[in-house]
Design a protein that fits this description.
The protein has 146 residues and is mainly α. It folds into 2 domains: 7-37; 42-133, Cytochrome c-like domain (Cytochrome Bc1 Complex, Chain D, domain 2, Orthogonal Bundle), CATH 1.10.760. It contains 5 helices and 2 strands; from the N terminus they run ααββααα. A two-stranded antiparallel ribbon has the order 1-2. The longest helix has 29 residues, at 7-35.
């Protein structure tokens, strides 16, 4: 092998690398397109879930909280809060009580505002958070506390 690095050698390395990574990109894209439909659970969206998402959006919850990694990092991640707080064994009651008891008034802690949600709105919010907790995130985050 020659001890000098020629323009032709550099060009071949560049084109070879470009072709390799383009093929890798295509392969990963096709694999994702094949796997993602199996993880979809849009058929589980109810009217209550839709109303809960509307509450999430109109109260700007994403301004403080993250949900599935999207949003602000001021307050806790809520993508798995339903499971984290008991799931079907008390998760709904915990979430409703938590929202109703805000702000707690504990000095030195961040405070969530009181949104004055009625019982139906609280139930819709719980259903939205329950639906979100059922999204197949591919075992991420690795622990339930996120």
């Amino acid at each position: 092998m020659s001890e000098t690095f020629t323009k032709a050698m550099a060009r071949n390395i560049f084109y070879g690398g470009a072709v390799f990574f383009f093929l890798l990109f295509l392969g990963l894209t096709f694999d994702s397109m094949k796997a993602l439909p199996k993880r979809d659970h849009r058929e589980n969206i109810t009217e209550s879930v839709t109303r809960g998402k509307l509450i999430w959006e109109t109260r700007n919850c994403v301004g403080c909280h993250t949900i599935l990694g999207e949003g602000a990092y001021f307050a806790p991640e809520l993508g798995n809060v339903y499971k984290r707080r008991g799931g079907d064994n008390g998760g709904a009651e915990f979430i409703k009580a938590w929202i109703q008891s805000q702000p707690t008034g504990v000095p030195g802690r961040r405070q969530m505002p009181q949104f004055h949600l009625n019982d139906q709105q609280l139930e819709d919010m719980v259903q939205f958070l329950k639906w979100t907790s059922e999204v197949n995130t591919g075992t991420w985050p690795p622990n339930i506390e996120g």
